[in-house]
Structures are given as C-alpha cells and as structure tokens.
Amino acid sequence: MSGSTEPDEPRIREVRSRGDRRAYLELVRAPYRDNPHWVHPDVRLLRGLLRSRTWLAKRSEHRSLLAEENGEPVACLTAFVHKSFEEKLGKKIGTIGFFEALPEHERAVDLLFREAEKWLRARGATRVWGPMNGHIMYGFGCLENRYDDRPVVGSAYNLPEYPGHWWRNNYKHAPSFYSYTIDLTREETRQAMEAALVNPRLAKPEIRLRKADLRQWRREVGIFIDIHNEAFAENWGDTPLSHDEIWELMGLARFTTDPELYWIAELAGRPVGLVLCMPDLNEAFARVRAEPASLSAALALFRFRRRVRRGGLFVIGVLKEARRRGLAETLTARAMRRMIARGMTEMEYCLVLEDNAPSQRVARHFGGQQTKTYLMFEKLL
Questions:
Q1: 197 and 328: one domain?
Q2: Which pairing describes strands 310-318 and 346-353: parallel, antiparallel, or unpaired?
Q3: Do both 114 and 145 map to the same domain?
Q4: Terminal CA-to-CA distance of the chain, rounded, Å?
Q5: How far are the Cα atoms of 149, 244, 309, 333 from residue 250, in angstroms, in the given order?
Q6: How many Å apart are CA 109 and CA 106, to the nearest integer?
Q7: pLDDT digits (tens, 9 = 90+) for 294-337
Q8: pTM of the model
Q9: Can you give the residue range of the structural domain that contains 19?
Q10: Is the torsion defined by CA of 311, 327, 84, 92 positive or negative?
Q11: 40 and 117 co-located in one domain
Q12: Which residue, of 176, 204, 227, is where some domain finishes?
C-alpha cells in the first residue's frame, strides 16, 4: 500500500501557550534564513504583544494566529481592531500585521486570512487594511521591489511572493508609500542643502531651530507625537497616538539618537515642526543577523556604528501655521549636514505617502530618486 503524498489540510490556531509564542517568533526568522539582504527586526514589541503586555495590546482588540501543515507552523499573522480608528473615523477598521509565511504554503495562508477576516467581521470591523501592525506607527507596508537592497532600520522587508498573498485573497490596492534615495556626495545636493540652511523666510515672525535635548527625552518624544498627530491628521491610515503609546515605541531610542539628527522648530516658544533622522543601524546589525536587543547586536553596534554610511529620514512634520516658509527644507538640511559630518554618503527618505506632494517636493529638492515602493491593501468585509 503506498502512502499519500498530499499534505494534511492546514490547521489554524490561536497563539496561547509559550510554545505558540516561540513558534510565532521563529516564523519572523525562518523565511529569511538564507536571504543575505534580510536584517533581523526588533521583536521586543511583538514579544510583549503576544503576552498582551503592551500599550498596543491595551489599545486594541487583537488575535494572533498560527497556520500549521503536517504539524509544523508555516505562517502567522495578528489581526487588530485599534481604538484610534473608531475614535477618529467613527467606524471600526481592522488591520492585519506581523504577517510571515514560508514559501509554497498558499493554502495555509489563505485559510489564515479567512480566519482573521472572520474574527474582524465579528467585532464590527467594516474593512481591513494591511499590512499594518495595529497602528501605522508600529510598522506597515509590503515591499514590492528592490528585494536585493538591505532595508533601512525600522522599515519593512519581505519575500517577493508576499504581495501575491494579498492579491490572491481579493485585496484591492490602497495608497502606496515610497522611499527616496538622496546622494549626499552629489554637488547639486550639497548646494541645495547650503541654500536651505540660509533661509530668510524664518526671520519674521522668527522660527527658532533647536536640536533635541536627550536629557529631556520624554518631553522630546511628547513633542514628536503631538506634531505628528496634528501634521499628519489628513494622511491616509494615520490616527492619533497617545504619549504612553509613543513612549513605548521611542523611549529606548534615546540611547541611539544623535541630537543633531532630531531638530525641532519653535514659533513663540511653541513647537511647530520637526525632522527626525537616524543612522541606518542595520548596517551594524546585518553583520550578526541577531535581534537588535541581543548582546551580539549591541557589540556590533558599539564596534561599527561610527562606520555607518547611510542615514534614514523618517519624519518631517510642519504645522499649518509654519508652512510655506521653506521650514521643511531647512530642517532637512540641518540633519543632512550632520550626516555628512559623520561620513555618511547616502540618505533614504522612508515611507512617503503617494499623494503627499509636500514631502515628495522636499525629496526632489535635494535630488532624491524614488526607489522602493511599499504596497498597502484594503478589503471590504
């Protein structure tokens, strides 16, 4: 009698036990084991979420799921209904995030999506967006191209087949996000930077620029989210985040932040704009392929952080009362000048919404070239 070679029907189960949590975290690594471009993401937040011990867990209903075939975990995701969407939009929006899948397990992935959608529908969600880890500030986007590029720290990376999982499950295109690469060695870029640093339009009424004060890091993090909440209020997918939530995300960033890469603009003593950049620490983390919170990653960071040659520009935010004065360009130029002083040769402006014309103008002002595309997907429930 010959045995069947057909795999067992995939099984979906909720993450409940310590073993389930280990299996989920292993799926963060397993699809990329032989991929030289992948860099281990920081999973401290995910680890806390799986134990329901984070502000993300407090502010959302969530359900983490595993898909198994032949008794082995092959895919995972977490479905969310974050309260901020209902508070802002008056309706429940579901999101699917922290998704990973081993290659060639489409049946398991499809069942996983269906189970997540069923759960979201039962909680009153009218549509689902993804990939989004509950809230846009916790991570989002499905990389569509340039899989041979190492991701900038904090940005998404996935296998080339991941977009197909969303299309196959009848998701539609939602607004995309772009990254722009700026060559800091280019003469025209440096000339644009020098011109932006001398900005007479900031004189009356005077807008004062200051670098972040690491000794007052909680205050600076609060300023960051207050400006972000107001400046990005009309952007697709963005909803307000509380001081407690952003502190969970940025509290430890004090130890890796260069104050001259985080500039704050003030008008009559009130913060009205900011730029936040970081060295691309993935250049150091990639050398060890370990969790950023691990000892080996810390040692790599200590040894190589001064050799980082790429910077990441993550947020430029300017409030309406301070716009049309070239403030965004001047803030960006301050950060670029510091990158050049540190020996960086390239800056990546990450995750610019496809219809965010002001941010796109800033990127192109300094010679930025659109490179990576991060897809977002939407489905009515």
A1: yes
A2: parallel
A3: yes
A4: 46
A5: 26, 10, 23, 23
A6: 5
A7: 888 889 888 888 889 999 999 999 999 999 999 999 999 999 99
A8: 0.94
A9: 11-176
A10: negative
A11: yes
A12: 176
